[in-house]
């Protein structure tokens, strides 16, 4: 499991406006090459494109349902943040869609993902796709993942970057949410950026 903060690596590629303008409202990931078009399949087997989320903020997290600990923990934090926002800031919460994208498309069928995401929040959209489509979308979000050799029972782990991106209503990157902290910390950041 990797928790490298991608903004560090991105800093070099960012325009100077992020630190030169002195505008506190500039999102940390403004201008970063994160995100892009995708065509995937949701937990109900329907085709979903990035453009289907136009006008919505998105919390994008990559993981896999067989993940023994970190993915379910992180998704629980996102779910907790969403439940808190539903109560404290319902108008903002209604503009946010949490999106779980699998890095294990071989095992994560729509049915498996449906069962998984239902644990966290009713509005989580779970996405899977062909191995090529998953590789492409992970690459566009700068999310590293690698299937590990199978263990004696045939099961395997997938190493992956554990990061939750907050994306804006036009699919633009805004910030990396504090997934290493807790639900309230994530909710606070979402409230800060969602208008
Ligand atoms: Ni995981």
Descriptive notes:
The chain has 195 residues and is of the alpha+beta class. The protein has a single domain, classed as 3-Layer(aba) Sandwich (Glutaredoxin). Helices cover 31% and strands 21% of the residues. It is built from seven helices and nine strands, in the order H-H-E-E-E-H-H-E-H-E-H-E-E-E-E-H. It has helices at residues 6-10, 17-20, 70-88, 90-93, 110-117, 131-140, 183-193; strands at 39-42, 47-49, 57-63, 96-102, 125-128, 145-147, 158-160, 164-167, 173-177. The strands form two sheets. A seven-stranded mixed sheet has the order 2-1-5-4-3-8-9, sandwiched between helices. Strands 6-7 form a two-stranded antiparallel ribbon. Helix 3 (70-88) crosses helix 7. The longest helix has 19 residues, at 70-88. The chain is globular and about 50 Å long. It starts with 5 loop residues before the first helix and ends with a helix. The protein binds nickel (II) ion. Nickel (II) ion is lined by residues 1, 63, 67, 70-71, 160.
Topology record:
Elements: H1 6-10, H2 17-20, E1 39-42, E2 47-49, E3 57-63, H3 70-88, H4 90-93, E4 96-102, H5 110-117, E5 125-128, H6 131-140, E6 145-147, E7 158-160, E8 164-167, E9 173-177, H7 183-193
Parallel strand pairs: 3-4, 4-5
Antiparallel strand pairs: 1-2, 1-5, 3-8, 6-7, 8-9
The protein binds nickel (II) ion.
Nickel (II) ion is lined by residues 1, 63, 67, 70-71, 160.
What is the level-2 CATH architecture name? 3-Layer(aba) Sandwich
Q: Provide the domain count.
A: 1
How much of the sequence lies in strands comes to 15-25%
User: What is the CA-CA span between the terminal residues?
Assistant: 32 Å
Strand arrangement within the widest β-sheet reads: 2-1-5-4-3-8-9
The low-confidence runs, each spanning 5 or more residues with pLDDT under 50, are 7-23
Give the overall shape, derived from the CA principal axes: globular
The tally of beta strands, per DSSP, is 9
Q: What are the distinct ligands in this entry?
A: nickel (II) ion
Indicate the structural class. alpha+beta
CATH fold-level topology: Glutaredoxin
CATH superfamily: Glutaredoxin
Radius of gyration: 16 Å
* Major β-sheet annotation: 7 strands, mixed
Number of helical segments? Answer: 7
Order of helices and strands: HHEEEHHEHEHEEEEH
- Taking all residues together, what is the mean pLDDT? 91
Helix content, binned percent: 25-40%
The level 1 CATH classification is Alpha Beta
């Amino acid at each position: 499991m990797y928790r490298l903060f991608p903004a560090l690596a991105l800093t070099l590629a960012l325009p100077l406006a992020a630190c030169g303008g002195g505008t506190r409202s500039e999102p940390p990931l403004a201008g970063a090459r994160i995100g892009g078009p995708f065509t995937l399949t949701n937990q109900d087997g329907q085709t979903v494109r990035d453009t289907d989320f136009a006008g919505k903020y998105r919390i994008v997290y990559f993981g896999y349902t067989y993940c023994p600990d970190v993915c379910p923990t992180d998704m629980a934090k996102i779910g907790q943040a969403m439940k808190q926002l539903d109560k404290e800031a319902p108008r903002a919460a209604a503009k946010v869609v949490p999106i779980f994208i699998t890095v294990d498309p071989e095992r994560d069928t729509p049915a498996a993902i449906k069962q998984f995401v239902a644990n966290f929040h009713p509005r989580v959209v779970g996405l899977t796709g062909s191995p090529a489509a998953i590789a492409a979308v992970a690459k566009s979000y700068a999310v590293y993942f690698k299937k590990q050799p199978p263990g004696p029972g045939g099961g395997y782990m997938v190493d992956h970057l554990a990061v939750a991106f907050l994306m804006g209503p036009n699919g633009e990157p805004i910030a990396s949410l504090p997934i290493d902290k807790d639900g309230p910390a994530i909710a606070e950041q979402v409230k800060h950026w969602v208008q």
